[in-house]
Every structure is written in structure tokens, then in C-alpha cells.
Design brief:
OB fold (Dihydrolipoamide Acetyltransferase, E2P)
Length: 104
């Protein structure tokens, strides 16, 4: 029983850990709009993306935003986004869904 409880708690810790959010701050360097596409098994919703140079690592990272944020930001504006490790991985900013941009 203790072994099963330990295993369950371990799984919960790991699954919660990779969804931890990290605050990333930086400067907008570019904006990109992805048109929606339609077709058999290729439908994609429109995406509004901000590219920002992150302060600590100086890497340019991609962030999906909503419409008001996209249109209110200009190149050179300071921004901050709270992103999970999974979000960073899905956007191609990291190589491991369990680690943030800083390797933690």
C-alpha cells in the first residue's frame, strides 16, 4: 500500500512540476500573424505571436498572445509573460517539457 501511495505521489509531483509557470521578461523584437488554414485534417486557428528577447538568456522566444495584446504591442516594448514549461516546449523554445528556459 505504501509503495502504491508513493508511486501515485511521485507521478502527481512530476506531472505538476512540468506545468510550473515561470515569468519571462524581455523586449518585443518582432510580431507574426499566422493565417488560419482549412482543408482535410489541416485546419488551424489563427495565431498571434510575439517574439521577444528574454532578459536573462538573451534568447529570442516565441509567445502566442491574444488579439488585443498583439495589436497593442510594438517592437521595442517591454513585456512579461507567465508561461508553463509545456507551453515553452510546444512553442519550440525549449527541448524538454519538464524544464523551463533556465533548465530548471
Amino acid at each position: 500500500m505504501k509503495k502504491i501511495l508513493f508511486l501515485l505521489l511521485s507521478v502527481l509531483f512530476v506531472s505538476c512540476h512540468h506545468n510550473d509557470k515561470t515569468l519571462y521578461k524581455g523586449v518585443v523584437v518582432d510580431k507574426h500573424y499566422v493565417d488560419p488554414s482549412a482543408g482535410y485534417k489541416s485546419y488551424q486557428e489563427e495565431q498571434y505571436q510575439i517574439y521577444m528577447r528574454e532578459d536573462v538568456t538573451q534568447r529570442v522566444i516565441k509567445v502566442n498572445t491574444n488579439v488585443p495584446t498583439y495589436y497593442n504591442l510594438e517592437k521595442g516594448d517591454r513585456v512579461a509573460f507567465n508561461l508553463s514549461n509545456v507551453d515553452m516546449y510546444d512553442l519550440g523554445n525549449t527541448q524538454d517539457p519538464q524544464k523551463n528556459l533556465y533548465g530548471k
